[in-house]
Amino acid sequence: MAYKDYRLIVSSQVKNQYGSSKKPQASYLAEKEDKAPSHDHYIQCYMYNIHGIQQLLWCGNSPDLNAIEAAWPWMKRRTMKKGAPKNHTEAVRVWEQAWKDLPQEKIQAWIERIPVHIQKIIELEGGNEYREGRRHGQVEE
Predict the structure, then answer these.
(1) In the chain, which end has fewer C-beta atoms inside a 10 angstrom radius, N or C?
(2) 109-123 pLDDT per residue, tens
(3) pLDDT at residue number 105
């Protein structure tokens, strides 16, 4: 993707999320993103900077304690049960159906697990030893 195109896309996303003015109204706006390539491009950092949005430090291999992270393997298992979708339309259909089928009780269980994950990270004194999303080495169905 060309620099000009990328800059326009990121700029429009910043404006959509934080407002249309060059500088946000609030002085406390901050953004936290992992170091996935789509989040780590220097243009993205530049765009946050010119819009006055602070990027919070996010160390590589840090555990992500966001409850939604547990949804992705669950969703993948549901959407791939009959094999990979054959086209975009089918992919959208199976993913939307999986979201509709996701029980609220499962989401609540993922949320309630967060203190367990935090305690385990404290016990391990940080580091990369903790495999988030697992409880006692088991994969949830």
Answers:
(1) C
(2) 989 988 888 888 888
(3) 95
